[in-house]
Amino acid sequence: MFTIIAMLQKKLVIVIPVIMILGFLFGLQMDVSFLKQGIMPLTFLMVYPMMVNLQLKKIVERGDGKVQIAAQLLNFLITPFIAFALGKLFFSTNHYLALGLLLTGLLPTSGMTISWTGMAKGNMAAAVKMTVFGLLVGSILTPVYIKMLMGASVEINMLSILKQIAIIVVIPLLLGNFTQRFLIARFGMVHYQEKLKKKFPPISTLGVLGIVFVAMALKARSIMSNPSALFVIFIPLLILYVVNFIISTMIGKLFFKRKDAIALLYGTVMRNLSIALAIAMTAFGKDGADIALVVAMGYIIQVQMGAWVVRLTDRIFAQEHHPQKS
Questions:
Q1: pLDDT tens, 116-173?
Q2: pLDDT digits (tens, 9 = 90+) for 276-302
Q3: Which of 134, 179, 243, 246 has the fewest beta carbons closer than 10 A?
Q4: Residue 270 CA to chain centroid, in angstroms?
Q5: Fold annotation for 2-29+38-316
């Protein structure tokens, strides 16, 4: 069973579009209102396993300060506003789709950020720190940004969003950290690192696929009435990722060594779509499916981009790049 789940994680490029199609077909044939009851369990299944392997102590370790600052400036002062501008441009008449694009741009680093960085031979320690710090800061700033940027267009219940973030981020984070400590105490660090640690990320994949299926099923009939909507959503998402990729790559090549530049790229271009999807489906009621549809389509671009960047790393960062001296 675990082998099958691990295979699904490695084949997300193919699996997610297939799940989206299956969810779409299911939503056309069935009354899918019952699926809403599965949103919270699937959310927990998606978020909790990724929290088990987070090393919270990394956030207070010194080193990589310059690249960490650059990553968070990109993540919280540039990308959200690019997403907001694209949302205003492409979704001026559908504010919930615009909110979906903003939510995609608000939460940095994916569950695969560390893995992608490792495969591309980047700075793994920096990637871990970006992931932990990005998650914590993103969870705090997300309701603030949503209220500040979308409050005039969409009814925003700050208390509800904060409550949902506590449920889908803080509680799994605490439980995950407790689980990690328990497993290390029970089986030892070596056994945890070599045998247990790798079992959790694939489990998270099941939650992702479940939520994507539910989001597509709930939106199936409205998509059927306007099939071009998927294409309209795809274009601004692609622009968001490409612009983010160009900015991050240029900054990395200009100011950082190769390994730090790779970590910066994956720590800023990859977005935490799992958390964004969870917030969309739990904090916005019936309108959450619109928001989630945008986020779900982000997976298609993100997984493809992550895989291709690994293949093209030597072309993108052809030589060792040292910081420019002033």
A1: 788 788 888 888 888 888 888 888 888 889 989 987 677 777 777 788 788 878 888 8
A2: 888 888 888 777 878 888 988 888 888
A3: 246
A4: 6
A5: Na+/H+ antiporter like fold (1.20.1530)
Gap between the Cα atoms of 275 and 279, Å rounded: 6
Q: What is the DSSP letter of 108?
A: B
pLDDT given at position 261: 95
Look at the block and give the residue holding tokens 């309701």.
143
> Backbone dihedral region of 73: left (phi > 0), alpha (psi from -120 to 50 degrees) or beta?
alpha
CA distance 300 to 15: 10
List, for the chain, all residue ranges whose pLDDT scores fall below the cut of 50.
321, 325-326
| Structural domain spans, the chain | 2-29+38-316
Residue found by looking up tokens 């984070």 in the block: 173
What is the reported pTM?
Answer: 0.78
Beta partners for residue 271, in sequence order: 108
Q: Which long-range contacts (CB under 8 A, 24 or more apart) does 310-313 make?
A: 310/116, 310/119, 310/120, 313/120, 313/121, 313/262
Q: Please give the Cα distance from 260 to 250 (Å, whole number).
A: 13
H-type helices in the chain, by residue range? 2-10, 12-29, 39-52, 65-73, 79-90, 95-106, 113-119, 124-150, 158-165, 171-187, 189-191, 200-225, 229-255, 258-269, 273-283, 288-311, 313-316
- Phi/psi region, residue 271 (left: phi>0; alpha: psi -120 to 50; beta: rest), is beta
- Residue 196's H or E segment, with its range, is none
